[in-house]
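Entry:
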Amino acid sequence: MKGTVLISGGGTGGHIMPGIALYEEFKSQGYNPILLVGTNDVKFSSLNTIENLYTYNAPTMWKNIFNLPAFTVRFVSALLWTMRFITKNNVKAVIGMGGYVSAPSLVGALLKKIPLYLCEQNVVPGMVTNIFAKRAKALFTTFEATADYLDVGIARSIIHTGNPVRKQVLKQVNKDAALKRFNMMHCKKVILVIGGSQGALKLNELMYDMLTQYPENFTDTGIIWSTGTYSYEQFKEKLQNVTHRASIFLAPYILDVENSYAACDIAISRAGAGVLMELAAWGIPSVLIPYPYAAKDHQKKNAMEFVKTGAAEMIENADATAQKVAPMLFDLLDNETLLARMSAKARSLAKITAAQDTVNFIVKDCDLKK
């Protein structure tokens, strides 16, 4: 019987972007998927391209016992809405991308007795994965090491497909054209600074300190710098009042991300699974500074998978000062052989067919009709 799939997730770009990638792949194969995110997630500009986009008032996890009544009311409301939505739209399967936003829709799938599937982006599985893994028909993982954090009984449902990546990210771009896009044709090296969907004040401060403390070292160097929305105006003003030698492209968020990947020689980044697998797809060496407050320290464990392979260097957030990071960065940029080796190692971690492999499995497993 003809039906559709509901892709549910939210909270951060790390949950939303792979959901968009699956949505794109279902569409390209002729299916009619639906993407469901939380009300607060509509700020993500990448959602502007989604035709079948819905939002619901799913609650975030409560940390204070006094918030339990409000959490319960919102959860039940979101659950009832989802169950009606599943019936009205003839949903045949629900895919949870992680984040608390996906929980009501996954419970709805169980109550409606339709198949549910999970995508886990990080090495350490999140709470939603831990809760629903035993009821999922398949758990698609980004990292093989995720299996070490789950019960042995769940192993049969784990499929290591990698993290789905949006088609725009995988779009091949000529490096010269990308450098021209950022007015960096004259630059000998280009550094990409990305703090994730929420931005990263620590990375912004680090980059600013390196620029002002080591100005000579940035001669003929380009910096494509994504500050995040909250810090953009602050650092735009600060850069206007200092002397530096770099060519800087500053933006709160880089929309044509494929050009930034094509142009850069190295990235300074947090260690969310989404950005890591995008860097891997482009074979970009990186200096990773994991967000120290990520649940179960998952960003550090993500980063370690890249460090062990030789694709990245890692430095702890507390140690990420200009005095410690700058020498590491300049040594890497001056070593073409090492950069090439790191690039090859990064590519070895890439799973560029992740979206296609995930969709193909689900289509066959639940006999989805076009």
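The first strand starts at residue 4 and ends at 8.
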